[in-house]
Amino acid sequence: MVRSSDYQKRPPNDTFGEFSIMVVELLGKLGVGLLLAVWWSVLFPMLSLPVAGAVALGWWQGWPYGAAAGAGVVLGWAVWRMRWPASFERWVTGRMRQRYWRWYRYNRRWRSVMALQGLTAQLDERVLTPPVVSIRVGRIVDVVDVAMLDGQEVETWERHAEKLRHSFRAIGLRVRHSESGRVRLEVIHTDILRKPIPLPRVVVDARTVDLEAVTVGTTQLAQPWQLELLGTHFLCGGATGAGKGSVAWSAIAAVGPLIAEGSVVVWVIDPKGGAEFGFGMGWFDRFAYDNTTGALELLREAARVLLARMARIRGKARKVYPTPEEPMILLIIDEAASLTEYYADKKVKDEIERLLGLILTMGRAAAVVVHGYAQDPSKEVIRLRQLFPVRAALRVREKTQVGMVLGDSARERGGLADLISLKTPGVGYVQITPAADPGDDERSEAEEQRADIERVRAFHVTDDDIRWIINTYRPPRRYHGDQVPGEPVVIDLDEHLYSDNPDRNGKSRNR
Which residues bind ATP (predicted)? Predict the structure, then answer.
């Protein structure tokens, strides 16, 4: 614990003593100022050397010559600044700005912040403060590397992340593990996600589209927000108006050239009557938009396709690579977390749950990719969350819902989705975890705890943008099964769904 030293009152009427103390303090400040001037002269020779030269010329030849030389120096700096601004920023203003912000934001109050946050420790009569290893000041984010005290761990700092954010007057703060014994603080001071980001209407060649890195928005560090489509599944949770539609249509637009080529087909389940995806009703390859058996039949077809593909590649390849003859199926499910609630028949609910489990478990290798969107991520069916390696939480209503999407410790790791403003639809937090084994809850939870969380914003997709997508990327044909050589694979879907349980007639399907 850090304590302020007791204030020691000086004896009254000690005028000489007070004057002596003032002189000593003044001399001390002058000495410190002189040392700082010398140090800054060494740090910025491009400024100090011309000034020193002008002063020397004035001392040698007289002040008019020195004044003229000084004016020439200032003019030279002005020309440098206007003619080569990047060079001037690199060598002068940028370095000065970095020095100033390092001192102002961190160095001048580091000890007090650490003490008030409870991150110091007392050993005998000494107060130990975590030392700063390095500070890199950036336009958007500052990176502060800190050596942790013995007995501290990264989780200790994660628990203080929100308080540290306020202490440093930042808009965001992320805690990262850099190396053994050290922790990295990414302190974000500039919010580039405040304004909507228009969907780029750029038509590219299908060969340039990378299904393992499609751009759907921007991160808070001004980097592209890229989703891996091929080989993974994606879950996005958010309240009404949070921007889930923009995320979905941004992903569709990103693979538009492959849709036009036939290497990607889009299947959609919208159990709310097509409210969200009705624009593409005639454009999607498959579209189930009500709470009848349409969604069930679509899931059955997707399951048959993936089982047939797995049978074909067994012993030959690890996964399917999309082609026009064997396209990737992008299966978009609105209200994925509560899909079964739209059906009253218990048998239908049970089969939908089994089909979803099968597709989420095996679909990644078969190029059957699921993008699920959930308005209320607190529903019980969110237990399928572990089967979605990539997850995003847009604006949610409650703190607990952040954990429902991103994991229990998401807020401590910077996922503050419950604090997102109503005025910033499309802003959210994305987490990427390795694909989980649905039967290994302990490992799945451990992977969640290690996953990084990134603040992002999806492109803002308007109705005109959707019309542009539909008119620009028209599918060449409707998908009627894989057009691959060889004998067609016959799939008994019920055998795969009910092999470990009695069927609806009470007969076991185990063979």
Answer: 238-245
